[in-house]
Inverse folding.
């Protein structure tokens, strides 16, 4: 039970909660609001499109209990829109934004006792859209399921923000032009598990993927977006269809520009990144992860003294402050969950 959770020992892992949300539709019918049901297994045909051909998408988002006693989402409408773009790419019926937002609200409301206290973590919210109908040929499934489940997670960094060591992958790539790298397709993630595991076994936190065409430009860090700072300018790989348009990424760009910083969305070569003054990656799980070092082949560069750079720390403090409502939400990013 939630009352017995040791909030201080929570990690970023699955803790089954009480309730999930589910709705289904055929390929030809509009989506209708779904229902809450006990969290647990769902029945699916062995010939389901998602299991045979990977016709599926997911989102990752968080609900926070803030310093003002509210429970809020961080920009959930952006998750809804990203899932719609992904649905178009994978030939699935897009879930209307109103149904998506209502679904995540209902699921958090039904599991409120699992939302960690302020500063102890967050409720991770996982929407899934998949081709659940049976199909034998390689074609879109005849029917689809949209579901949402939630789990409490602890802070990604225990005891403060920690710089991580990364390895540039010179053998594997995450995505290619014209592929599905720009959407949150389930099939994008399994191929990264082996390179990631190998990197971790060698003492690194994660891999950096380069572009598949020239093997020159930084694309993503595992499943996170990349930033670096050089001479007071913030650089991040441009959105060309091979990297995921992260919501945290977009928020950081807006925050940095609000701070008066120049931001360049452009091609960022590995050589340029390794000559930067500081670097970090970002995503829903960790918010911002400072990068302490990058290794490429026999070359290794270390940023600063292994501590987060000043720009990295400022952006982290601002973003977390907005999410926890210890700082003003100047951008209108917070979406209150009705209690």
């Amino acid at each position: 039970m939630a009352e017995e959770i040791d909030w201080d020992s929570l990690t970023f892992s699955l803790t089954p909660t009480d309730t999930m949300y589910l709705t289904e539709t055929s390929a030809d019918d509009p989506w209708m609001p779904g229902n809450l049901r006990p969290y647990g297994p769902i029945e699916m045909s062995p010939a389901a499109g998602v299991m045979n051909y990977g016709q599926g998408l997911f989102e990752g988002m968080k609900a926070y209990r803030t310093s003002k006693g509210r429970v809020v989402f961080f920009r959930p409408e952006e998750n809804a829109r990203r899932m719609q773009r992904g649905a178009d790419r994978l030939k699935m019926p897009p879930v209307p934004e109103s149904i998506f937002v209502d679904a995540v609200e209902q699921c958090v409301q039904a599991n409120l006792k699992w939302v960690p206290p302020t500063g102890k973590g967050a409720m991770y919210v996982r929407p899934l859209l998949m081709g659940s109908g049976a199909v034998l040929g390689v074609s879109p499934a005849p029917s689809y399921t949209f579901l949402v489940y939630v789990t409490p997670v602890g802070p990604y960094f225990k005891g403060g923000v920690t710089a991580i060591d990364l390895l540039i992958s010179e053998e594997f790539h995450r995505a290619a032009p014209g592929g599905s790298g720009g959407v949150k397709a389930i099939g994008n993630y399994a191929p990264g598990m082996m390179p990631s595991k190998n990197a971790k076994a060698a003492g690194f936190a994660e891999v950096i993927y380069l572009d598949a065409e020239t093997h020159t430009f930084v694309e993503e860090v595992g499943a996170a977006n990349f930033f670096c700072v050089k001479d007071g300018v913030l650089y991040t790989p441009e959105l060309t269809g091979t990297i995921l348009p992260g919501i945290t990424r977009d928020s950081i760009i807006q925050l940095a520009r609000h701070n008066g910083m120049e931001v360049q969305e452009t091609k960022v070569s590995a050589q340029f990144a390794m000559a930067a003054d500081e670097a970090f990656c970002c995503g829903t799980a960790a918010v911002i992860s400072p990068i302490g070092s990058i290794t490429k082949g026999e070359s290794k560069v270390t940023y600063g003294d292994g501590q987060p750079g000043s720009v990295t720390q400022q952006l982290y403090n601002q973003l977390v402050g907005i999410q926890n409502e210890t700082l003003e939400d100047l951008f209108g990013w917070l979406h209150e969950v009705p209690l």
Summary: The chain has a mean pLDDT of 96.
